[in-house]
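Researcher: Go.
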Amino acid sequence: MTANSQPLSAGRIAFVILALALGGFAIGTTEFAAMSLLPFYAADFAITEPVAAHAVSAYALGVVVGAPILGLFGANWPRRRLLVVLMVLIALGNAATVMAPGYYALLAFRFLSGLPHGAYFGVAALLAASLMPERRAAAASYVMAGLAVATVIGAPLANWLGLAVGWRIVFGGVSGIALATAAALQLLAPLQPAESGRSVRRELSALAHPQVLLTLGAGAVGFGGLFAVYSFLAPVLTEYTGVAPASVPWVFVVFGFGMLAGNLLGGWAADISLKTAAVGLLAWSAVFLAAFTFAASNIWLISLVCFAIGMGGGLGPILQVRLMDVAGEAQTMAAALHHAAFNLANALGPWLAGLAITAGLGWTAPGWVGFGLALGGIAILLVAFSLERRGSRRASGRDAIAPS
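Model: Structure:
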């Protein structure tokens, strides 16, 4: 609905969703491109690749720090205005990255680029869901599809541009896409004045809500399995599977297509039964993460398994809608924290997988690590659903004995 309560046309809603997804594509490209461009800026700054990888960690730290801070800062802002400001900040952070004169400046600018990430995806999902109230999970999945498309197109294209032109041009392109998104949202998105009564105190209440914390925990742990495999996929393919380095990007593309399919199917399934979709998708992930260890010796099998593991990315919009349901009046904070949890998973999964490989468990160890993390995510969700049922029974009992 617009500020004057006139409904939007279906065509305009579609363009708004597309603009929100374009912003997701810009963010996904800058996040995943930093991984694929790592050898190029390592060489440019005369540092080793493990040291250069700290730029990836700096971005993830920016997401974790920025999500709650900007979620609080924008608690009383109309969603369109907040999204436009966040996109401008993303554009500025990536433009600064283009001009980074040295390694430490790169770390600082990547940290700044990550600050708006979580708040953008959280608020974008809230806006999309408000435009499609009967299909909230599908709406959130369309926004997240932009990030999935970035893994299919953005990251491989960034790698090619880094080789052909230079790594800086990629972040300049992201800056341009972010500005185009900001302009499109300013022109097309409804203003949606801030909800009455929304305040910093109410947004902070999300941090004390057990169901919010459990849902975030399920994301931080359950998502970790996907990243455990994704982060070590390249060395697994070259060192264990035995494929040529030139074939590696194609497996990442297959992985990205799996993420795109999972986002769309996950959103559809969650609109039918959110709890079944959440547990079912984590169970799916657990099965194929375990299968990764047996498929890793064959390029065709590992490609199929990577597609299936990528589909586990559909958990994102499912948990986003779950947070909408349990966060009460703390919608903006909870939505932003969802993507902070996502980036904690991005740190947890690779860290545990790296420990397993270093301990001598072999290149297929990330699959077993991911399997355990997926089961951990299921366990957290089952605890959340059990507590929710108990709370509902207690509330029903109180209603039954209340005097009329």
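Model: The chain has two domains: 1-194, 198-388.
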